[in-house]
C-alpha cells in the first residue's frame, strides 16, 4: 500500500477489486475482473478525508465513471512520469500504425532534450501502463508537464511547437502548484487560461500565482 498522496492523472491499482465493486454502484462494464487489472485515474475534486477522487476507465471513450476510493485500497501507483520513463511504446506491436504512439516516439527525445518534467496521460498512458490496448487511429496523445515555476521562454517555445504535429493531435497540460491548464489555450490567448483546480475551474492570467 502506498503512503504518498496521489496526484491528478496518477494511476491507482486496487488492493481489493471485488470489495470496491461491491461497495459502489458501478456501470456494468466496470466489473471486478476489469478493476483487478485496470487502474483508476486520480481526478481533481474537493478534499475528502481518507478518500481519493478517481475516475474509472473502460476500453472505449464512453466508458467513464467517477468515484471515490478509500486511500487504504491503493495497492500501487504509476505516475505519468513513471510511464514516460518506462518507454513501453518502443515495444508496442502497433507503434507504427497508431499516430499517437508514433508521435510519442518522435516527441519524447525532444521533451528530454528540453529538460521538461513530463509524463504521459490519457488513453496512451493507460494503454502503456496496463498492457491492454485501448487505442485507435484517432486517439490523441495527452502529455503532462509539471512546472513549479513559470516555463522558460525556450521550453515554452519547444512545447508549443509540438502542438502542430501533423499526424496526431497532441494535447499538453501544464501542472503548476495551484492547478493545471491547457498549453494550447495559453498559446491561443497569450496569457489568460482556464486553470483546473480541486475546487473547480477558474480563469487565471498567471497560473503560477496563488488564486485570490
From TrEMBL:
Organism: Cupriavidus basilensis OR16
Segments forming domain Phosphoribosyl-dephospho-CoA transferase MdcG N-terminal: 8-80
Keyword Transferase (UniProt): yes
Phosphoribosyl-dephospho-CoA transferase MdcG C-terminal domain segment(s): 94-206
Gene Ontology MF terms in the entry: nucleotidyltransferase activity
InterPro entries registered for this protein in UniProt: Holo-ACP_synthase, MdcG_C, MdcG_N
Keyword vocabulary terms for this entry: Nucleotidyltransferase, Transferase
Domain of life, per lineage: Bacteria
One Pfam assignment: MdcG_N
Name this protein carries in UniProt: Phosphoribosyl-dephospho-CoA transferase
